[in-house]
Write a structure and sequence with these properties.
187 residues, alpha+beta, five-stranded antiparallel beta sheet, 4 helices, 15% strand
Length: 187
């Protein structure tokens, strides 16, 4: 016997047994047998086909979809409020190398778009190379508004940005640790 024939025979046996089981259940468990099943099916089809201000079959489709959409919206709003509350208590500013750094948080709590500001006039500043030679690392933060200048640093600008991000992560860990300690004191 080939694989195709054995699959066909197996499927036929499953369909026959399933049909027999459904027939037995309807005949013995439902009062009135198949007659009452057909009556219920006929009543449902008549109701679906009847008209009110809107077709009833259309209402059967739209009402569950609307309820699911409303539920998803409410769950998304609660999740958004919960995540916003957690992020509002986190620090969003620090001073490093005499420069003020500020940042925002993404919904997942990661630092997003940190920027540097002058500590004197609060003007946004950018790191500048401290040497005209590209081979020499180093830089300085300089404010074009008030001519304030930070202390020079002896590493590349990406290294400074990496240090700032690591310092921010350290501050976040300290903040979480402090909140956990405060929570333990309350309980």
């Amino acid at each position: 016997m080939t694989e195709k024939n054995s699959t066909t025979i197996r499927n036929s046996i499953i369909v026959t047994l399933s049909t027999g089981a459904i027939h037995a259940l309807v005949t013995y468990l439902i009062p009135g047998g198949w007659g009452s099943v057909f009556t219920v099916i006929k009543a449902v089809l008549m109701w679906l086909g009847s008209t009110s201000a809107t077709y009833n079959w259309l209402l059967c489709i739209l009402i569950p979809c609307s309820v699911m959409l409303l539920g998803w919206t409410v769950m998304a709003l609660f999740a958004n409020l919960r995540s916003s509350d957690n992020l509002s208590s986190l620090p969003k500013q620090m001073t490093f190398l005499g420069v003020v750094f500020r940042w925002t948080y993404l919904k997942n709590g990661h630092v997003n778009s940190f920027a540097s500001f002058c500590p004197m006039c609060d003007f946004q500043i950018y790191p500048q190379p401290s040497s005209t030679y590209k081979a020499l690392p180093g830089g300085v933060y300089f404010c074009e508004n008030c001519s304030w200048q930070s202390q020079p640093f002896d590493c590349t600008i990406p290294q400074i940005e990496n240090q700032v991000l690591r310092k921010i992560d350290h501050c976040l860990r300290e903040h979480e640790r402090q909140q956990n300690d405060d929570h333990r004191k309350l309980t």
